[in-house]
Write the structure tokens for this entry.
Amino acid sequence: MEPLESQVPFPVRFVHDAECAAELELWRDPELTDAIYLSLGEHLGGAIVSDGKIQRGRTGTFEYMTLEEGGRKCYCGKLGCVECYCSADALLREGESLESFFQLLRKDDLGYCRRWGMYLDWMAAALNNIHMVMDSVIVLGGHIAPYLTREDLARLFMAIQARTAFPESENFLRLGVQEQDAVAIGAAIPFVRSFLASI
């Protein structure tokens, strides 16, 4: 960080992109005191919000939890990581875009519905594991989130309830802020907060 800091006349810090997006969630909803933020992007990312603050360091790296022993190979070199089943990269085939995938899915194309069902099953397994560790709201953001419907969230919640040892009646899943450049905006927020506190 020091070489970069010496080249620009501004404060510099490195932050995980999911933590930046979670900062935006906190900015938009100050009452979000305890939550898990999961970024469903090309790759997965996560952040933990506790007591209204983002937990820094190696927290929220849910993408490297093992979902299937001896499963698909992750870019980290291990097998069966959540990344390999729940990222946008895992959902799409070569040459596909999220837009084209969801267009065909919403037209009830059988192959796409089958793939989506498998994706939601893996996602339910991952979210159940995460929720068992931290009993809080789970906010879904990232590139896939804008395509999710209320029906998708209800279906995902029901799949989690079918797996969990502790069923709940209230859906703890919610969609994150649907804002372009959420990561860039979120990265700026700590500096904005610091500035506001100084005046």
Observations:
- DSSP finds eight helices and five strands in the chain.
- The mean pLDDT is 92.
